[in-house]
Sequence to fold (430 residues):
Amino acid sequence: MLTQKILKSILNVKHTAIDDMKILLDGTIVIKAHPTKDEQCRCGICGRKSVHYDNGRGGTRSWRACDWNTHKVYIVADIHRVMCPKHGVVTVSVPWARHKSRFTKEFEELATWLSLSCTKTAVASLLRISWNTIGPIISRMRAELDANPAAHFVGLVRIGVDETSYKKGHKYITVVINHDTGKVIWAHEGHGKTIFTKFFKLLSKEQLANIQLVSGDGAKWIQACINDFCLVAKRCIDPFHVVQWATEALDEVRRLAWRDALRNPADKTPKKRGRPKKDTTAKDLKGSRFALGKAPEHLTKKQQAQLEFIAKADKRLYRAYLLKEKLRLVFQCENVAIAKKELDGWIKWAQHCRINVFVELQRKIRRHYDAILATMEHHLSNAVLEATNRKIKLSVYMAYGFRNIDNMIDMIMLRCSDIDVRLPWDYEAA
Fold:
């Protein structure tokens, strides 16, 4: 009797009766057990008391428990099937393990916590399990800890949406965060209007009416979904993406200037015999990408010298640099009225700058004019979401990829949402 109490205490199981224990030749510990009378003949899905149906395939089933020092531990029990009024014929539940799992609850809680901090390979080596079994363990834990996903949508006022790649070959997932909590509330494979529509369909009419701000990049499908589901909400274009548009336009002007310098060198002196010397203007323009892209206060002395050279050697490229800087400073204005005045001035300047890519850029900014002003008014950016995307990429990298997209999304929700993942003994303490 004392031995049974000790074994139950070490295994940390409840509603369980210990029948026997033996140690195999390789040191594996096998403990035969069965549920107590109140926990017998319960549906494996809902836990309802049900009628015995048959013995299924017969025999015993084993569940891997947490190791005892260097010894593997298994719990074995005779299993049968029951007829549940709601779920039909299902395997009977056991108090020490989850439905369709071959591991104890404590073992899965430990594996999940480790998976958030270590690579899947390290977890598999430490727990002596297969690499492929970690993904299903994560999914089962997410299903239990996040039993009510709709709770993430309570009190939504400001949300952010973005897509991020998780695999080569243009494989994307769409992620939605709550700006007030900084946590992920929804993630789904793919991107575009069809995917974002699925998120809005999960919300009630009251929840849709409460959404006031939606931040994102310049994708058309974001605005299309806002128009379809929450007309009251204002869209905010992330400042990072607006400045990125200008930086990309500037880089295109730089490449054109470099090609022109190669075709039309500044040095027109007759060529001498021997290997021709490279034109220094083209070389300096080619290496000026970082100097043009950085903010003036962060430039090194060498990069400042490069800008001074560009101001003398290529007026057109320097004018494009000033346009980029002017647009960046628009987002640093003290209030919306000043920002609006500066943005209008920038649009007028870009419209007559005689640089095609910036003329196209000012047209693009005109299309998103209201969203840019809303960003300045409410000071809402996708910085938190960009940081979350970094966590997602790190999670995929740490796991060395996921074969199952659902397992990957479950990992993202466990790591980046408000789901409370603890060690086994922390659950007991709570």
Notes: The CA atoms of residues 63 and 102 lie 5 Å apart. The two ends are 29 Å apart (CA to CA). The chain has 18 helices and twelve strands. The mean pLDDT is 88.
